[in-house]
Design a protein that fits this description.
Chain B: One of its GO terms (biological process) is proton transmembrane transport. Chain B: It holds the Pfam family Na_H_Exchanger. Chain B: Its main location: membrane. Chain B: Belongs to the monovalent cation:proton antiporter 2 (CPA2) transporter (TC 2.A.37) family. The complex is a heterodimer. Chain A is of the alpha+beta class. Chain A folds into 2 domains: about 5-65; about 80-160, Regulator of K+ conductance, C-terminal domain (Alpha-Beta Plaits). Chain A contains 4 helices and 10 strands. Chain A is elongated, with a radius of gyration of 23 Å. Chain B starts with 5 loop residues before the first helix and ends with a helix. Chain B has 20 helices and no strands. Chain B has a single domain (about 5-395), classed as Na+/H+ antiporter like fold, CATH 1.20.1530.20. Classes of the chains: A alpha+beta, B mainly alpha.
């Protein structure tokens, strides 16, 4: 995907985003803050206006498009169904947990539960695809994928309940 | 001169408000409508029918001058030398094609009509300079702004804006400089000396400009902006230098500060008010009979300078590697003439001789009325024009084969 940016003197800025099928999305940001969004079917076609938004609303829609507006609240247990029987589970390691200080390999969670840790979230840091030598700490949030039953076991082992 | 009363100012605003409403209702550009409104409210029309009318007065002229100053100030504010330099090859090539074709055409028409050189030069400027306001608005209204043709159009307008600053500085000296080569040279030296000083101040004064405007409340912010702008423009005028160009440079000075957007937001309403007064004032000073008297040069100019703009715009579009169809649109998009042609006319009105004081202003009003309407119509009907031009060219290629 390529984004082309150009100045529109006296008007504002224009961004063109390639959509992959030969068409382009054209976003005109006026100096007043108004955004106009067009679609251009091909290089030689005229731009077709899709919609326009005032500044504030455009920013809000932008965050929704970005996926940042819908923030799932992290609690002890949140599950997201992937389809069939497979879940993604967020589990936080509580203070004083046995897992604090162990590596993922030592904890051997996959063997014990059948759920696989795909991400370790530590504060602002995200460790994706953690390996066996990744050290776990209290306060980390683990994202695990696995069958429903495995996730249940995973959750109770990590939280110690 | 008779004094301009509050009641007359009220009449002015009623007229421009109605003109604006008519424009919005029928999708017409407001600039020519404000001018027509002024003509209708003038002694030449309303006066003849025994209706209350607005007199040409010094006060109204002063308010109109503020309009010119604010128009050019905003132009400077939007104008970025960096941007021009960044895109220099394309913008300057398209801009050069534009000026090399259209400015001489106007001068030649003037000379052919038997006008002196300075008058012909004014005519050249009037037919050369396209209307940034009308064209930009049409681009947005028609959605062309998101198409490839918007870049050469807006780029050429930026080039024209820079040219108009230099041009106004030059012709102001020629018009106001008086008779004799010596006094013209002296007034040119004063003009370019003053503008040079102003340019240096603009170049190195960013921090000073920033400091002056560094205030939280909107009220002192607006007042300080005007407190810098108006005195500089007024001083320029008092020494025979174009107040419009001085305002343009002050705008450029402010454009490099972090306050630019705030100035635009806060002052845009004030600009619109005074710009409307300026266009109205142009109308008030125009006797429709004089416009009719200018019918011959007007017809010649319309017939000649519509195609020249389309042709120069077409080649400007080709510079940007656009297809022939899109390049034609660039040409069609450049046809509208407006505010700057009227600024030149207002300058001519301060000169001497009936060509300058009567014929050129009347011509400019008629020309702007025709060209702004024609330009807007051509843009909205460009589909038909394209079909016509390109079907015919296909047929002619077919017959040639």
């Amino acid at each position: 995907m390529t984004v082309y940016e150009s100045d529109l003197p006296g008007v504002g800025k224009k961004h063109e985003i390639e959509l992959g099928d030969g068409s382009r999305l054209v976003v005109v940001t006026h100096n007043t803050g108004k955004r106009e969004v067009f679609r251009r079917a091909d290089d030689d076609a005229d731009s077709e206006k899709l919609f326009e938004l005032p500044d504030q609303l455009a920013r809000q829609v932008g965050t929704i498009l970005e996926g940042a507006y819908f923030q799932p609240v992290r609690s002890q247990s949140i599950e997201t169904l992937l389809g069939g029987d497979t879940l993604i589970e967020w589990v936080e390691i509580p203070e004083g947990s046995d897992l604090d200080g162990k590596t993922l390999g030592e904890a051997d969670l996959r063997q014990e539960t059948g759920a696989n840790v795909i991400v370790v979230q530590r504060g602002d840091m995200t460790i994706t695809n953690p390996g066996g030598d990744t050290e776990l700490r209290a306060g980390d949030t683990l994202l695990a994928v696995g069958p429903r039953e495995a996730c249940r076991t995973f959750q109770s082992i990590v939280t110690g309940e | 001169m008779v004094e301009f009363s509050l009641l007359e100012l009220g009449e002015l605003f009623v007229v421009v408000a109605v003109a604006g409403a008519v424009g919005a209702r029928f999708g017409l550009s407001v600039i020519p409508l404000y001018v027509v409104g002024g003509m209708v409210a003038s002694p030449f029309v309303a006066g003849r029918f025994g209706l209350p009318y607005v007199l040409q007065s010094e006060t109204l002229t002063l308010l109109a001058e503020v309009g010119i100053v604010l128009l050019l100030f905003f132009l400077g504010l939007e104008f970025s030398l960096d941007r021009l330099l960044a895109a220099k090859t394309n913008i300057s090539r398209a801009g050069l094609i534009d000026i090399v074709v259209n400015l001489p055409v106007g001068v030649v028409i003037g000379l052919a009509l038997g006008w002196p050189l300075v008058e012909a030069l004014l005519l050249g400027g009037i037919v050369y300079i396209s209307s940034s306001a009308i064209i930009t608005k049409s681009l947005i209204d028609l959605g062309w702004i998101a198409n490839a043709e918007s870049e050469p159009i807006l780029g050429t307008l930026v080039f024209e804006d820079l040219v108009i600053a230099v041009y106004l500085a030059l012709v102001t000296s020629l018009v106001l400089g008086g008779d004799g080569a010596g006094s013209v040279v002296r007034s040119l030296a004063i003009a370019f000396g003053f503008l040079g000083v102003l340019l240096v101040a603009v170049q190195y004064g960013t921090r000073l400009f920033s400091a002056v405007l560094d205030v939280e409340n909107p009220e002192p912010f607006v007042l300080r902006t005007l407190g810098v702008l108006i005195p500089i423009a007024g001083f320029a005028l008092s020494i025979g230098v174009s107040e419009a160009v001085a305002a343009f440079f002050v705008g450029m000075g402010f454009s490099t500060t972090e306050h630019r957007e705030r100035i635009e937001r806060r002052l845009v309403g004030i600009r619109d008010v005074f710009a409307a007064v300026f266009f109205f004032w142009i109308g008030v000073n125009t006797d429709p009979r004089l416009v009719l008297a200018a019918a011959v040069p007007l017809a010649i100019a319309v017939v000649v300078t519509t195609p020249t703009k389309i042709v120069s715009g077409y080649y400007g579009g080709r510079v940007y590697d656009l297809t022939p169809k899109r390049s034609l649109r660039v040409g069609v998009g450049m046809v509208s003439r407006g505010e700057f042609s009227l600024v030149i006319a207002a300058l001519a009105a301060q000169g001497t001789g009936t060509i300058m004081t009567e014929l050129i202003p009347a011509f400019a009003v008629g020309y702007v009325l025709v060209m702004s309407t024609l330009g807007t119509v051509l843009m909205s009907e460009s589909d038909r024009l394209e079909a016509l031009v390109f079907r015919e060219s296909q047929e002619s290629t077919a017959t040639a084969d």
